[in-house]
Every structure is written in structure tokens, then in C-alpha cells.
User: What shape does this take?
Amino acid sequence: MKNSVLIMGIDGVSWDLLRPWIEDGKLPTLSRLVQKGASGNLKTVIPPLSCTAWTSLFTGTNPGKHGIYEYTTESGKLINSKLIKSEKIWNILSKHNKRCCVINVPLTYPVDELNGYMISSFLTPPNEKIYSYPKEIMPLLEQLGYRISIKHEKFAFLPNTKETVEQKESILKDLYDVLEKRYLTLKELMNENWDFFYFVFNETSTLQYLFFDRKDLMLEFFKKIDDYLGDLIDVFSSKNKNPYIFIVSDHGYNPAPTIQFNLRKWLQEEGFLKDHRTLFQKIIPKIYKIVNKKPLSKLIFFLDKPKEVREAFLRKSVETSKIYYRNPGIYIEDKNMNKMEYDGLRNLMMEKLKQTKDISTQDTIFQVVEKKEDIYSGNFVKHAPDIILVSKNKYVLNFSYDSEKTFENIKLNMPGNHTTSLKGIIIANGQDITYKRNDDSSILDIFPTLLHILNVPIPKNIDGKVIKNIFKENSDLYNKEAVLLRDSIEKNEKTKIKEAIQNINI
Assistant: This one.
């Protein structure tokens, strides 16, 4: 039987937030889906950022293969979809004549050509006139008043400033408007037959960032989302045969951290690091700190060239050291060190990091301290930090020369944060899906599971597996063996040559 898939992303939500509301009957759509299908925690990737996690979902590969670790490249530029090294699920489905609609999925600008429609997401340049494939659907988007994201002084992200706090109420109103326009657009585009329909409501991430301390206010927003989800499921199910419905999130959210741990100071105290900055490198960040005030800050953030210069100065002030921190961990870049010295240094550093405690509470700092090769695999592991770190929820890591304190109490302007939250959610419904709690799945497993449902061969080089235990025993999807492609991934010769050149160490 031919199946169809609707996958709906809700950015940054966890069961800690949703479950009490679901159990109290305040979110009837989600409650119904949980009672009829499989649901549970969904392990995410490190770092738990939208760009990294959603890319892992739609490629089925870890960051060591798809190459996305952060929102900026090593040169400080904002990332885009061209930097993704793994094949995306909608491209595979298009090759198998499956119609796909992909809307507001992070890291889809520039848009791909596919068998269907694509509308890009929040990293789209603010002045971009064409952000859809095909471009012929742009008049429809304009007619519907579609908006990619809220506008806040043209920032790609809401800055953690007092000015943002002062505008929280107007930003919330804007979030409701963006959400409504997105819902109306989704409903309009669902009035066709689709094999695969994938969208993300990323307004929930901004909401928690701004209002994590206002559960009453957040509940009202989630009630609206719950209504929209129910209506969209009904529309999709009326248009497409044998629909399978998935709701997923890329990570969770926590209260904002209250303690800052300065890795630069710690590394110096432990004897791992010496300050080798030049006078020029010491002065430039201080000058930037002075000019990073309105109205000069607007010039810095609006124009690409000043922004690149700023990023370069800040990065160099850190990377002058042979050991430095940049999310998601510590880099060791001493070219004079042999392998034995490197291994010894890294092992010693990891041992000390695991034992490091907050001097005021005697709590350990980290939930993850691992070697990069134990977390990632693939051609792009070389771009990862040598030691991967994820702190516990109340700590935020930095590498700063502005402070001489290893531990410092802080109060951030925004009450929410997700950089330490490693669990999202999964809810699955469909004819062959059973009712059960399932906490063992990874975000990497979504990709092969969807291909399995749609009867499309699965690339061998992916890192996830089909989530067989969500299917009813003796059902077709439970009994059917996953079909693997003969080649690890379908790529044309030009792409293979280009990647081979990229991987040459000169």
C-alpha cells in the first residue's frame, strides 16, 4: 500500500514542558496523538543547536558527516545550505518520484530544486526577494502575507540585550502573526497530493527564549499551535492515502544558566595555556567593545564586511592560543606536538575537566566530556573540537580575557536557553504504529524510518536506524526488511571529485 508522511517540527520543546499540559487536557491534539501512537524522548546531537540537529534529522548523519557544527563557519560567516555535505531526504525522495513539500526547515537557504515546493527558513538574508522553489509560488506567498520570521533590527537571532527585553511584548505579538501566516500558508499548500510534507514551527524556540519564566503565557501560545496542528493533520489526512504523522523537536529548553565558567582562566590555572596574544590582538577586542554601542553597533551588524572583520578579531583573540574553546569544545592546535604528546595532553585535560567542581556548590560542571572521534564519525570530524563539552544546565561556558574569575554568577536578560538540553520529543501515529512509550530513539533515526515507511532505499552511510519498535508486530512495516542502497550515497561524479579535493590535506 502506498503511504504518505507528514512530519511536523516544533522547535526546542521537551516533555518537561508539554507533558503536564497534555495530561491536564489543555493540548487536545497532542493528547490524542500521544494516546493513539508511540511517543517518547528523542536524543539529539551535540551541539544541541537547531542548525546542527535539524540537519542531522533530514540527512540521517552526524555532524562529522554533514559538516554543520555551528551557525558560523571557521572564517566567521553565517552558514547556508550549500555547506551541507550529506544528501537530504527530500532529494532522495525526489529521485524516486515522491512529491515533497518542505517549509521553514532550518538551513534550507538557498532552496533546493526538488519534486515539489520548498520555502526557506530564518537564515534567509532579510532582503532576499526569492526564497522558494519554484519561484512561481512567490506571488502566492505574498498574497497570503507569508513571513519567514519576525523582524527585530534585521538580526538573524534575537540579541540577549536589555533592548530586546523592553520589546518582548511587541515581539510576542509579532510571533503570533508569523505563526498564523505560516499556518495559513501550510494549509493552502496542503491542498494537493503529497508523499512527504515537512515543516517546522520555530516560533516556539523564540517564545521560550523570551518567556521561559512565564508558563501561563507560553501555554496560550501552545494552545494556538495545538489547534493549528489538529487542523493541518485533518487537511493532510483528507488529501493523502494512509498518512503517517510525526511530531518531533530538535532539542529541549532549560532555564537560562546562572553561572559562567571561564575555560580560558581554568586552562591557565591548570597550566595548559599561556597568553601569547600580541599587543594588537589584546587591543582590538577592547576597541570593539567600545564601539559595540548604538548607533555604531547597527553599522557593524547590518554590513557584512564590518561583521566579518569583527568576527575575525574576536576569533583571533581566542585562537592565538594553541588551546582554545569554541562551541562545542576545546581545540588543541599545536603543530609541534607528536601523537603521543597530543594523546597525553588530551587525556590529562579530559580527566581534569571531568573532576572540576563548582567551588561554591562542589557540583561537577559537565554532563559530556568526550573525544571528538567518540562522538562523531566521517570526513568532517577534523573540523570538530578535540574535546567535546556539554555543561550541566546551570552553567554556560566561555573563553574570555575580560574576566579573571573562573566561576562568575551571571543573570542573562533572557530566561530560556537550550545549549545544554539533549532531549527533544517524538510522537508517531499511523495505521501500523502501536501505542507505546519509546525513549530509545535518536534524531538520526527519523531519516531512515521515514524512507522505510515510504518504501524508498536507505543510504548505507547514514548513522540512524529504522525505529522498528514503534510498529505493530506482524504489520507490514514491522516485518519488512529495510532496503539499503548499493552505494553508500547517490552522488554525481562532480560532487565526488569536489569532496575528494576538499579532503586533501596540503
